Amino acid sequence: MKLDIIGDIHGCYEEFKLLTEKLGYRWDQNYPQHPAGRKLAFVGDLTDRGPASLAVIETVYLLLKKDLAYYVPGNHCDKLYRFFLGRNVKIAHGLETTVEEWKQLNKREQERIRKMFKELYENAPLYHVLDNQKLVIAHAGIREDYIGQYHNKVKTFVLYGDITGEVHGDGSPVRRDWAKYYKGKSIIVYGHTPVSNVREIHRTYNIDTGAVFGGKLTALKYPELTSESVPSSMPFFAEKFRTFDEEVVGNKDR
């Protein structure tokens, strides 16, 4: 199994296209294909905050239809899904950009995108266990003892991380550093919490390098476990990036 696992895109379609081209994918049609048969994988949060969320949805949908990719939903995907179901969700924290983009479409196109994303979300597992359990892809990560389980506590963990119920001064949730204590054999690849560079610790890899906050969009190559990145075109917000006590491993870019 040879994969290129993409971090949180958040509507940064141009960066996504540039990254796949850097990885050797060809856009001969309107989606990327690798000449050597590698597949893409996505850790969720395809949409919100960035300028082209709908283009990302369409591309990932096509890739899944053609069996060229794997996808797991993130918390932003979950919220957009609930919006498309007509649930009462707060249109904030980035969702407003996707909703505004969607509202610019005519009714027929709105319905097409709505159905497309609902299908994408409803057919996605909460997390992927791949390559004979050697690899797990989960949006915000997953505890070792949760692998193989799918109850509500697992869903909360996978979508939001190991939250305590408390909030920081800026309103963001307090999260425990689960990766610091992970001792499992499976490699865990995740995103959700922006870091300046790929964070590798205890066989876990956080590959959300803050593309939508002016960082970069990153892919982790599997099984090579090396990374490739492209710089973001978005404004830089240093306060959006988390730092940890131990060293954060830099990208092994080539």
Automatic annotation (TrEMBL):
UniProt-listed CDD domains: MPP_Prp_like
Pfam families documented for this protein: Metallophos
Top-rank taxon, per record: Bacteria
Keyword Hydrolase in annotation: no
Coiled-coil region(s): 92-119
Domain Calcineurin-like phosphoesterase: 1-195
Protein keywords: Coiled coil
Endpoints of the signal sequence: none
Stored InterPro entries: Ap4A_hydrolase, Calcineurin-like_PHP, Metallo-depent_PP-like, MPP_PrpE-like
Record PANTHER family: BIS(5'-NUCLEOSYL)-TETRAPHOSPHATASE PRPE [ASYMMETRICAL], METALLOPHOSPHOESTERASE
Protein name: Bis(5'-nucleosyl)-tetraphosphatase PrpE
